[in-house]
Amino acid sequence: MANIENNLVNATSPYLLQHAKNPVHWEEWSPEILDRAKKENKPLLISIGYAACHWCHVMAHESFEDEQVAELMNKHFICIKIDREERPDIDHIYMEAAQMLTGRGGWPLNAFALPDGRPFYAATYFPKDNWKKVLANVAKAYDNSYDQLLETAEKLTEGIKNGQEFSPVESDENFKVSNYRDFLLSWQKSVDLENGGFKGAPKFPMSNSWQFLLQYYQNTQEHFAAEALLKTLDEMTFGGIYDQIGGGFSRYAVDDKWFAPHFEKMLYDNALLVSLYANAYKTFPKPHYKKVISETIDFITRELKDPEAGFYSALDADSEGEEGKYYVWSHKELSELLSEKELSIAENYFNCTKRGNWESSNNILFTNQSPRDYAKANNLDPEAFEKEIESLKQTLFNQRQHRVRPSLDDKIITSWNAMMITGLVEAFKALRKDDYLELAESATDFLLRTRLIDDNQLLRTYKNQKSITGFLEDYAFTIEALINLYQVTFKIDYLNKAKHLAEICFKDFKTESSPMFQFASKTSEKLISKTYEINDNVIPASNSSLAKSLFLLGKFFDEDKYLETSKRMLNQVEAKLFKSGPYLANWQILYGWLTFPFYEVAIMGKKAQDWSLELQKEYHSNYVFLGGQSENLSLLENKLPKDPSETIIYVCENKTCQQPTSEIEKAKKQLK
């Protein structure tokens, strides 16, 4: 193949750069490219993926690197490549089209559209021969049956737009405990109590879903919630989805037992899982949860941290052209590396076999129980056995370092970094490791210094000085991270900055006609439809995150606008909470805040931060913590002790406080 370059050579996205030497004449999305399509009267071929996506690589190798296929694409289409992580606004629209047309979505996503961007066909991966047929058929239809394609495009675009409309809901805001309790019914139908997670395959972590069950258990003491939560947390920890050697989680498991991962590792998954395990550890202090938290953060700081500050996006599933090659082991390799005793542990504890437990005689390391439980079941000394496992893991880790590494997507995405900051804060609260708070604060400083432009616009990405305007999720998760940081540091600047970003959301993402905030800024490029992100998925929805943060900001600043907006947003989705629980879990958490007592814990005086952290070692869902040595919020007025050496705790509900105390144990009882 000739060594040629297309216009992606000027891109900064690692995903786009992967396609810069394709014979396809790829372009980056821009209004100018759409104008060119109109002038040339060519349909758009919009191909969307991301750098760590295995099937994106497969289609690239099979089709986009093939001269004949490229010739077909170049002749009949204006070909546009999009990194979905850079442009989720575009991805939302064409993914909606694919789901409306085919009932399914995923990546690579390939959409065909009129020159103005209105789609008439969209689907996911195609093998090469099928792809060539699709290209020929679409080109023929565009030349000979344009009116039919136009009609399809008009109907599809109308459907996408209608899907973003909200029917008016009577806003009585009468949220009830009985309704909250009923949310569990939809969960009971979908949770897999045998293997953890949700029934069926593939299995995604869906961290936010389990955060709701943790809250539900605290509020109701319902056994099912704890059983489902713990089963899921344990099985993910033991399965191949968790990297037993180097820490960190893969994006999903292809089977229903968490055994065989799709080996890509995403920052957002690991950030959300750190938060989940940290919160769970406070209520259920299992040693292997503590280990997962620390090993996952070690993985992130070792492999995803930028030298300046902030965190990269992802590690690929593939290395040397093979999925998972970096992570799996042949029995021969294990027998050459390990002592006889260690090999026995690899076989009996990590389930490795001579024939291999996975493809091509390879083994994925997984286990069935924690080291302590295994030791007890086999009459071994638990501490000695744990040391042996750590020694074995270190041997394999050292060997793995010599392998060809999966490629790194070194984009720094604002929203994903904000999720990681929250994860580090939760881990700091659970384990009290100062390093975690230092990492969180340095990443926050980096985001605010480099991503917040002129104090009025947040940018989405950071790579080689080229940036994209931030979307609602960038604002929402950054606001959430700042609120979380304030509660462990009592630095009022964090809270003020969160409020400032919330005001930008009202200005740039909110219209009077909708209770929700739109995904893309009103000042950004106009696409064929506005989109609103409502449903929680592997990442919580930007609107559910923002609704929660507005509720908290309303509490901190005694601001009715924030509280009322949050309630109206929740009211809009309330009817769906009974049947779509796992996909609206963040909204359900907010519902729990509004239906059970919600406390403001004000701690004032010399030891305010230390005492706050002592209280936050336990899991609290329906609380905010505020305080310090300055009465810088209305809720803190007249609460600073006159004696500078004294510290006082006020446990309040709706600004009405219980008897203040200078004893932590008394405060803990008031918080029960």
TrEMBL record:
Q: Which residues form the Spermatogenesis-associated protein 20-like TRX domain?
A: 6-160
* N-terminal signal peptide: none
Tell me which species this is from: Psychroflexus longus
What is the protein name stated in its UniProt record? Thioredoxin domain-containing protein
Q: Which CDD domains match?
A: SSP411 (cd02955)
Q: Which Pfam families match?
A: Thioredox_DsbH
